[in-house]
Amino acid sequence: MCGIVGYLGNGNAYDVLIKGLHRLEYRGYDSAGIALVAPGGKLNVFKAKGKVENLETICNDKDTDASVGIAHTRWATHGEPSDCNAHPHYSEDGNLALVHNGTIENYKLLKDALEEHGCKFHSETDTEVLVQLIEYIKINNKCSLLEAVREALHQVVGAYAIAVVEKNDPDTIIAARQSSPLVIGIGDDETFLASDASPFVEYTKDAVYLNDGEIAVIRRNEPLKVLNLENRESKIDVKTLEMSISQLEKGGYPSFMLKEIFEQPTTLRECIRGRVVENGQRVIISGVRDHKEKFLNAKRIVIVACGTSWHAALIGKYLIQEMCHIAVEVEYASEFRYSNPVLGKDDIVIALSQSGETADTIAAVKIARSMGAFVFGISNAVGSSIPRETDSGAYIHVGPEIGVASTKAFTGQVMVLTMIAMAIADLRGTLTADEIAGLGKVILKMPELVEHVLKLNDKIERLSLIYTYARNFLYLGRGYNYPVALEGALKLKEISYIHAEGYPAAEMKHGPIALIDAEMPSVIVAPRDHLYEKIVSNVQQVKARGGSIIAIVTEGDSVIRNIADHVLEVPEVPECLSPIITSIPLQLLSYYIAINKGKDVDMPRNLAKSVTVE
Question: Do 185 and 309 fall within a single domain?
Answer without folding.
Answer: no
